[in-house]
Amino acid sequence: xxxxxxxxxxxxxGSRYSRPRGPSVFSLIRERxxxxxxxxxxxxxxxxxxxxxxxxxxxxxxxxxxxxxxVKVQVKSAQLTREAEEExxxxxxxxxxxxxVLRSGEWRDLLQVTDGSARRPDEISPSYVRxxxxxxxxxxxxxxPFALLGEPPVSAWLPAGEYxxxxxxxxxxxxxxxxxxxxxxxxxxxxxxVQDLSAGRRTVVHVPLPxxxxxxxxxLVVRDHDGTNGAQVSRAELQRLVDAVEHTACVPSPGxxxxxxxxxxxxxxxxxxxxxxxxxxxxxCRREWTQGQIFTLLDWLPTEAIAARQRLEQMTKSLGWRNFxxxxxxxxxxxxxxxxxxxxxxxxTLDKFRSRQEMVGSLKLLAGIFLLAVLVWIxxxxxxxxxxxxxxxxx
Length: 395
Description:
The chain is α+β, with helices and mostly antiparallel strands and 395 residues long. The chain folds into two domains: 25-56 and 327-387; 74-302, no CATH class. It is built from nine helices and 15 strands.
C-alpha cells in the first residue's frame, strides 16, 4: 500500500524563500579593490562630518584667551573651600581667589552652596556665589583681554609674576534708582586687585565686593552732574554705550564671547557709601562675557535700542546652541549615526541590489540608537539632578 509523501517542514520552505544575506561591507570593499576603498573613504568622511562640525562648533572655532603666552593655565573653578586648603603649589605659583561681601559690619567670603566647611557657626544666612565671575590678565598689559577663570572660589596654577585680578558681579541698585521697573545703573560692577605671585607659594586673594547685591546699605547711585537729586543717565551718555553694543566685534571664546564694551567708572567714597557710577567716564574693558551676563545687559538696555538688543539676542542664541550641542551625548549620537550611514551608503553603492534591504535595516538601527540615546539622556539627567552633579567645563 502506497504511502503519501507529506510536504517538507516549514523550516525548509522558509529557507527556500528567504533572501540570502550578502557579503559584509568589508568583503565588498575587498572585492571591488581600489574602487571599493575610494567609495568607503568618501562615505566615511560624509558620515563623520556631523561629528567634525560639533568639534568645530564647540572647540576649534573658539579663540582661547591666553593669560601667559605659551603657557597652559590649569584652572579649578567653583572649588570647595575644604578642597582648596589641601592644594599644593608645586613648582608654579598657586593662586586662590574668592569674593568677600560685607555682612553685619564684617567682610565674609562668598561660599558655594555645597560648601559647609567654611560657614561660621553664628552665621544664620551666609552669602553664596550666584553671578560672580573671576577674571585675570598680566599686570600692566592693558591691551590684553581678561581671561575668565570661573566662579569664586577658584584656583589657578600660574607662572610667577604680577597679575591683575578682576571680579565682575551684580551690584545692588537700591530702591531710589528704580524707574518704571528699570534701573538707571549699569547692571554689572567690577573690582580690580593687582597681586604678585611667587613660584612655589600659594597666594590667597580676597577681593572685596563693596556693592554686592546683598549689601543693601552700599547701593550705587548715578553720578549727578547737574546738581539735581535722582540723576538720570543723559541720552548722549547712554547712546554712546548703546552704539558700542551695536557695533562691537564678537569673537567666540571658551568662556562665552570676547567683547570690548565701555562700562561706567565707579567713583568710590569713604566706607563705600553712595558711591557713584559715572556714565560720562566710560572705560572699555575687553573680556569674556558669559551668556548670563549678556542676558543681564540685554534686560538693562532700553526697549528703544532695537539694533543693540538684536545684536545681544544673536549672541545669546549662538551661546544657547553651543551649550545645547556640548557633551558626550551629541558626540555619541553623531558618531554612531555617521558610521551607520557610511555603512549603508557603501553597500548601496557597491551592491545596488541590496540598497533597499540595507536601508530598512539601517533605519531600524538608527531608530533604536535614537530611542536608546534619549533613554540614557533622561536617566543621566535624573541621576545628575538627584546627586547635585553639574556640567564641568575645563579650559
